[in-house]
Amino acid sequence: MDMSEKVLLKIMSVVVSVLCVVAVLESSERDTRADGVDVTHLEKKIHDLLNKERGKMGLPVLLWDESLHSIARKYSQDMEHRNFFSHNDPEGRSFCDRYKAALFECKIRAGDTICLGAENISQVHLSAFYKDGKTVLDSKAEDKMAESVVKGWMSSINHRQNILTPYFKRQGIGVAISDDGKVYVTENFC
After folding, report:
1. Angle between the 141-154 and 39-56 helix axes, to the nearest 10 degrees?
2. What's the farthest any 2 CA atoms get from each other in the chain?
3. 0.85 exceeded by the pTM?
4. Residue 150's closest CA among 45, 50, 61?
5. Which residue has the higher pLDDT, 128 or 97?
6. pLDDT at 135
7. N- or C-end of the chain: fewer Cβ atoms within 10 A?
8. Taking the chain, what is the end-to-end CA distance rounded to the nearest angstrom?
9. Per residue, what are the HEC states of 173-185?
10. Would you tell me how many other CB atoms lie within 10 Å of the CB of residue 8?
């Protein structure tokens, strides 16, 4: 092998490595379940709809925060795996404990107090029907689920208050779906 072939081989090796990394990154950005629900799309749809609600009130958008997203996703997955639905896990830990465990710090001065963040949770069901013994998703399932979650939160005084708190700047949304179609949604704020 001459020098030019060796250089070409090295370049090809680097290109293949970069393509593999890009493929891994792209696949990790999407979390599509076997039933066809794109969890990542659902999370972003909820995020966008919540920012629309804030916009109606003249409030700035909440920025997407990857750390809050990770905390929210893990908590939704925990509720789904252990089959509970509460702001506190079975051991009594709250969102503040989850922030601390993730080394996430939120301290917002609001007048004479310091806010440590907030959390909304929701549970809805997949928009699906059965055909020939198989679960078939409604073609607008993700949109309908997102709208249902946001409508529920906006109809609840405390959840609505969290969404419309003017000093919150960031949020993360996390979704997990059980095999029986329960959709667990967590929204964390800072």
Report:
1. 40
2. 74
3. no
4. 50
5. 97
6. 58
7. N
8. 59
9. EEEEECCCCEEEE
10. 12
